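no rush on this but wanted to send it before i forget. theres a chain ive been looking at and ive put its sequence and its fold in token form underneath. i want to understand how the tokens follow from the sequence so walk me through it. thanks a lot i owe you, the record is right below:
>
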Amino acid sequence: MNRDASWAYRNEFHESFARTYFRRFGDGLVSSVGVGTYLGDATDERDDAYYTAIREALATGVNVIDTAINYRHQRSERVVGRAVADSDVAREAILLATKGGFVPFDGEHPDDPGAYVREEFPDYEFVRGNCLDPGFVGESLDRSLENLGVDSVDLYYLHNPEVQLEEHDSETVYDMIEAAFTRLEERAAAGDIDHYGVATWEGLRVPAPHESYLSLPEIVRRARAASNAAGTTSTHLRALQLPFNARMADAFTVESHAGPEGQQSALWFAHEAGLDVFASAPLLQGELATEGGLPDGVAERLDGETTAQKAINFARSAPGVTSALVGMGTVEHVAENVAAGEYSPLGADGFDAVFE
């Protein structure tokens, strides 16, 4: 993604949306509703549906696409690559993000997963299918670039590094993260990625005593050390991905990260540290899209025609959130989800009032 192309994209669509729909990411602009590609069976039929939906999203005002090498056994990356290549939207106008860290099966779940891992990745050790070894991260990135059919990705995440805490102490895991960051700094210097980040499920939104807790100040410190080790002029750490929705608001309510003036939530720390946040699971895998799915007292504060749109706008209202990543497996879902951007998110006072 580059500045001129993303601004041109914004200029084409911004009049269709309410204020703050497009938001800054670096020197570019991105839609505050993004396409997620996690859900769905590993079938050709689902590939075809995703292909059509992604092209429709790009054509109607969404320029953020999020995937991962392990999603649907590499099928999600491959269909994203085809959809982007065949879209009328310039590649340079799109924020393309993917993740590495989990074993990527190839097209389908193998009959013997253990044998597949031993054959494909004999040099690495895994914790529940997760590995942060720099070699594995580098190989995963190479496969992702091939799957996506691109020379570089805009944002590359380490995927759920907190899984490693199941077998290793926190200092060892931070060392692993720093080593992986160093490899990503090298790949950024080589032009293979523009930025990198950390995608988590629990790690950044739980209190410090939790067994899955990861410290944002320590992650930032390790990124700076990685930049120094790689000889880059400044760290390429840019973004966080974490779940945020009306029933999982821990990233805003749990103050577990040490800031300059005391403990802060993950969202506030990221906001003040200049890290973009991409909110996953804004619909909680569909649970919040049904009538009555939003908690009492929340729905009436939010604008939107449907419950799903209100849930998306809750995630878009949180401080520091750049984009809410929504699964869009059909054209009908695209139309409903993109239309959430026609309504303004809550202002700061209105968002705070939800928690009073």
Notes: Residues 170-189 form the longest helix (20 residues). Residues 3-354 form a domain with the TIM Barrel fold (CATH 3.20.20.100). The longest strand covers residues 153-159.
